[in-house]
Specification:
The protein contains seven helices and two strands; from the N terminus they run αααααββαα. With 146 residues, the chain is mostly helical. It has a two-stranded antiparallel sheet with strand order 1-2. Strand 1 and strand 2 (92-96) form a beta hairpin. The longest helix is centred in the last third of the chain and has 22 residues, at 101-122.
Length: 146
């Protein structure tokens, strides 16, 4: 079967529209869930980093203006806090409010349940292929898009 660039694009769009979807994201919008995940894992790590909006933009590929709107929304919901650096007043560090962790943990568990169902349908052997392909494609996308 000859696969065209258009076939790959259409398959990619089908996948991403199903993932970046209100039903998949649930209680939290997709970008908030993505940011919560980064901040949550950072705070749970043995060596948490000081993360800024710029750091989050780099990790998520979210534009700065959209990131600021998203962070404002998250702050209103009590999911994050912002702290100005004492060394450099221009730096504002963003931390996840661990007292609200159950919101993220519940959403994360729900999504993992969906992924587990998908893995069950695909099969564990093919799942390894999927992970390798997703990793390869995302690495190559970094090279091509940058």
């Amino acid at each position: 079967m000859d696969i065209s660039s258009d076939d790959v694009l259409n398959a990619w769009l089908r996948l991403t529209t199903r993932i970046n979807n209100p039903r998949m994201a649930g209680e939290l919008p997709y970008n908030e869930l993505l940011i919560c995940g980064i901040l949550y894992r950072n705070q749970k790590s043995s060596k948490p980093e000081y993360l800024t909006a710029t750091d989050l933009c780099g990790r998520t590929r979210i534009l700065k203006s959209q990131m600021n709107r998203t962070l404002n929304s998250m702050e209103k919901k009590g999911l994050i806090s912002r702290t100005r650096s004492r060394q450099d007043r221009r730096q504002v560090y963003i931390t996840f409010n661990m007292e609200r962790a159950e919101i993220y943990e519940k959403e994360h568990a729900r999504i993992l349940s969906c992924v587990d169902m998908l893995l069950e349908k695909v099969g564990r052997e093919r799942a390894e292929e999927v992970v390798k392909l997703f990793t390869l494609i995302s690495d190559m996308a970094d090279e091509v898009i940058e």
